[in-house]
Amino acid sequence: MEIAGTVAIISGSAAGIGRATAVALAEAGVRGIVLADLDEVGNGETARVVAEAGAEPMALRIDVTDTADLEQMYAEADARWGRIDIVFNNAGIVSGPPPYPDSSLATIRKVIEIDLIAVIQSSTLAIRYMRERGGGVIVNTASTGALNPLPSDAQYAAAKAGVVHFGTSCSVFAEQFGVRVNSVCPGVTETAILDKTGGGVRPDWLAPILEQIEILTPQDIAAVVLEIVRDDSKAGEHVVVHNRIKDAAA
Asked: Measuring CA to CA, how many Å separate 103 from each of 99, 114, 133, 206?
């Protein structure tokens, strides 16, 4: 897909990967971007930098687990621009302490609702709008945690694995509707989630991992999201963004 002149929706846009992707899309020539997040202050800052990069932002306070919020977001985007070309379902959370199986049942439900159910519901609305307009691209944020055991946050790993398989299951829509659904699986990335994993500090178990790898930046992930959007051959795929192993001699 040619990005210039398109309209995008990004959830989890107030910081991190969401903000970096919004800026990257604006710099690539996107016409308008819906910025969806509960953090109104952070989302306002994202809107400011997106506008500076040349795109028209629409910052909305959206709870991705609220179906009425999602429906309103898509309706407002369509009413304003008459098209929705790119959707990046990026909002997500980790469980934090205590680790599984001592996570509360409420926490387990919340992780599944945000990291999986909201992604599926938003993608469903996106597919319906896009098929009426000739197609589009959906990218959903999964994780390398979807591909490897993660006993300390099993519910997060399960949700992200669900995101990957959901994208695979949607591969047929590329031919049927011109809508490509893919997942991006970031490795360890420098975002607020690293500290939230430990309830405000990085957990002890993460330290030896971080000593061995180079942490990815939000801009690294944003670049891959744009590659997926541009590559018309990608449908139903999950693209892994690997951490480089540090040079032991360095």
From this structure: 6, 16, 43, 18
At 105, the amino acid letter reads: L
Which CATH architecture is the domain 7-241 placed in? 3-Layer(aba) Sandwich (3.40)
- How far is residue 85 from each of residues 2, 166, 229, measured CA to CA in Å? 10, 20, 10
The residues, any chain, with a CB within 8 Å of residue 199's CB and separated by 6 or more, are 96, 97
Quick one: residue 30, left, alpha or beta (phi over 0 = left, psi -120 to 50 = alpha)?
beta
Mean pLDDT of all residues in 143-161: 96
Residue entry with tokens 């509707």: 177
Burial class for 147, CB neighbours closer than 10 Å (0-12, 13-18, 19+): middle
Contact 101, 155 (CB under 8 A): no
Could you tell me which residues are beta bridge partners of residue 240?
185
Rounded to two decimals, the pTM is 0.94
Q: Return all residues near 88 (Cβ < 8 A) that are at least 6 apart.
A: 8, 9, 10, 11, 18, 21, 138, 139, 140, 141, 225
Distance CA 231, CA 174 (A): 12
Listed residue (17, 13, 50, 5) closest to 224, CA to CA: 17
pLDDT in tens, 21-53: 999 999 999 999 999 999 999 999 999 999 999
129 is catalytic: no
Q: Which helix (H) or strand (E) holds 68?
A: helix 67-81
Could you read off the pLDDT of 63-95 as tens digits, one per residue? 999 999 999 999 999 999 999 999 999 999 999
Angle at 217 between CA 215 and CA 223, to 5 degrees: 130
Residue 102, CA atoms < 13 Å, CB-side half-sphere: 5
